[in-house]
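Please, does this match?
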Amino acid sequence: MRTFIIRALGVLAVMLWLLPFTASPANGAWAHPFRMRVVDQQTRQGLSGVRLTSDNGLVCYTRADGSVLWTESALMDRDVSFRVDSSTSRDIVSVHVVPGGFAEIAVTR
């Protein structure tokens, strides 16, 4: 029983030491996501259900207002190519993704 308690305390100490460095919501993209909005080219209204695929295979679908939030740190601080698949068009756009940034993409409906 004593060995179990010592091991449990050791594991707890390591977790408490590592947790602030790996899962802190105040760091990076989680605290400041990159916001992207897909709009109709003519009406500038947000398009819902548009599939966005990043160059490293991450997939998101736009919300009702045409927006999507990217929180993946692998996308931050670089130019990212996105494939935009709407019901009527397929486009590829390149966007510079930064934490807290914003981009609006216009597609034909």
